[in-house]
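Quick illustration, no need to memorize.
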Amino acid sequence: MQTSDFYYDLPEELIAQHPAEPRSSSRLMAVGRETGDLQHLHFYDLGKLVRPGDLLVMNDSRVLPARLYGEKETTGSFVEFLLLKQTGEKQWEIICRPGKKCKPGAKFRFGGGRLSAEILEVKDDGNRIAKFECDGSFYTALEEVGQMPLPPYITEKLEDKERYQTVYSRELGSAAAPTAGLHFTKEMLADLQNQGVNLAYVTLHVGLGTFRPVKEQDILKHHMHSEHFMLPQETADLIRQTKQNGGRVISVGTTTCRTLESAARRCPGGLTACEGDTDIFIYPGYEFQVIDGLITNFHLPESTLIMLVSAFLGYDRTMNAYKTAVEQKYRFFSFGDAMLIL
């Protein structure tokens, strides 16, 4: 298939600039996986669509306030860092701009010196390796001086950092939110459990590669970014029990989906606890091994995420659902509305 096959026309005004209030008031398009039938609901109606014995699997990764604004020590000139991936003790792979200021040996300070950094290396792709210094905990300092790394299509300022976190986030490490989970409230999760729906967690630290455009026209030539994941034994056991009892495993988000399908590849004899890096690329023709349902937001045209959805729902049904979402003025992308495929 060609990248252009996954294009759709999206009016700019449908790109959500702020999260819904309350979280669960987002709209929800429910799509029949086999039929393509559509229902237009709200996210708080999810309990009407799932059954006792179903399992919701969620990504509990927590977003780092990974955007840093600071100055070069020698000149005081402005610099911006974006943390991508930890590579050592207080050592990170970063994107920085302007890049010409960020040569090996250059030193920078953030938050009036609360956090400082030195560039150690320039990688082949232009990213840098930086070593940070601070008094006390690095993550405490980062919370104090860092900003949320909102996607480039969100131009409005986010007043409350927690609105770019899921209510169940706990494992620090993501450069972007696993946004399908942003619609849940703690009360809603408790209600689902009370009606017999089970909850389980995985961790995948979302990288900024999730926003990178597919530049190859032939999708098979696209190289996926790598992200770190962890599947706990408790979750593996719950998935097995759910399948044995006739329940459905519903992935909350494409990151959870990629985690579960990556783990299945590593554990051909049945899911067990595992951890590692994955660059799995899921596109039409892929045979899913774990998930029976998917909750996801509406994704960018020509992105790997809409390709994943097309693999699960079918290409024609996916493009029809997106066409309908535009016509019905759903809100798109990270702070937008949700889709449930069952």
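The chain is about 20% helix and 25% strand.
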